[in-house]
Amino acid sequence: MRYLFIHQNFPGQFLHLVRHLTRQGDHEVVFISEPNANVLPGVRRIFYKMRRGASPETHPAAQEFEVAMLRAEMVAQTARNLKNLGFEPDIIVGHHGWGELLNIRDVYPDTPMLGYLEFFYHVDKFDVGFDPEFPDDPALHARVRAKNAVNLLALNISGHGQTPTLFQKSTYPDWAQDGIAVLREGVDLQACAPDASLAKRDFVLRNVLVRTDEKLVTYVSRDLEPYRGFHSVMRALPRILDERPDARVILVGGDGVSYGARLAEGSWREALTAELGSRLDLSRVHFVGKLDYQSYSDLLKRSDAHVYLTYPFVASWSLREALASGCAIVGSDTAPVQEFIRHGRNGLLAPFHDPAGIADAVLELLENKALSQRLRRAARRDAERTLSMAAYLANYEALIEETIAAA
Questions:
Q1: 119: closest CA among 96, 89, 146?
Q2: End-to-end CA distance of the chain
């Protein structure tokens, strides 16, 4: 088959599928994206370059849409050049989030298309107004609604949509949901397999030493920010450290902002460290920045209690990989996490806004070995049952076949 993938950041969410297809050896795989250094054998990459960003004269609420239309224009032009060279795909697979697919029907009007639909924004639920520490500003509602301009156009393009979770599907309008398939993303269960031997020897990560007689509490986020509960985790640490002198904490993530508002100056790490002051024993709290995959994976496997929090928003890959690694997880009682973790069954849930409740749950895992082991085993079993990479790829191929057959 001939596949055309489209995603501004190659390979994006399509890494595992593209790798799977090229390994089969009997497909032609072409990928349109902006230039980057990523390489996958067997993939023919076609680049487009943005001529400019949004105009300063454009209304602030419309600037994101302007950029999306510029992307749509460039992708369509690139695809047209590809078509003129004789490439006719059997299926187009792309991400709707940046507008790249909006004009693709002008080039390939009859080609089946499967679009990735990530999140539909609302001004009255989910992430907006969720955190009382950062009060909702009605003046920004117009910008939130405008973020759905691409979403709404995407939902009206003929084709099929897919999304990874029931929660993400639920964010879309009722009238659109019948056209959105839930395709649960898988993880590499072999790479993320539990490794009990890591707890039987001193564990070293960068300049941090975790001894065998110490308990390791972990937290991972692309960036250390409120959307992923960084502020709640930090405020839970003084009590955890006070009650467990043998506890050491490693927090993974950068000082940028992936989601939500930026501080006027400095980072959330600096702000929370300053807020907690002497209550936080920095000799046992380690900020290690961003890690290579192997170091990150080993950290999850060594963890004695792993904390994952998020606003009602898209769940991170790290939650799936923590489950597969057999982590004892404390998750936030928010809808995206509840889809993966059932309290007392394969992890513990705590209120997102309650540092004391988060500390209680972490301490329970550190103190109750039988509970911790039971939750670890259940987390791994559930990952094997619901997060298998082989099943994910088989389901993906089946959805592609259904999309082609329905065209």
A1: 96
A2: 16
Tell me the domains of the chain and their CATH numbers: 2-186+389-406 (3.40.50.2000), 196-386 (3.40.50.2000)
Task: Order the strands of the 329-332 sheet from edge to edge.
Answer: 285-287, 247-254, 215-223, 305-308, 329-332, 348-350
Has this prediction a pTM greater than 0.85? yes
Q: For 92, phi and psi rounded to 5 degrees?
A: -110, 125
Q: How far is CA 163 from CA 114, 290, 399, in A?
A: 10, 27, 12
Alpha carbon distance 28, 407 (integer Å): 20
* The pair of three-digit structure tokens given for residue 63, joined into one six-digit string: 């600037």
pLDDT of residue 379: 98
Q: What's the burial of 93, exposed, middle or buried (CB within 10 Å: 0-12/13-18/19+)?
A: buried
Q: What angle separates helix 369-386 from helix 317-324, to the nearest 10 degrees?
A: 110
Q: At 185, which helix (H) or strand (E)?
A: none
Q: What percent of the chain has pLDDT over 90?
A: 97
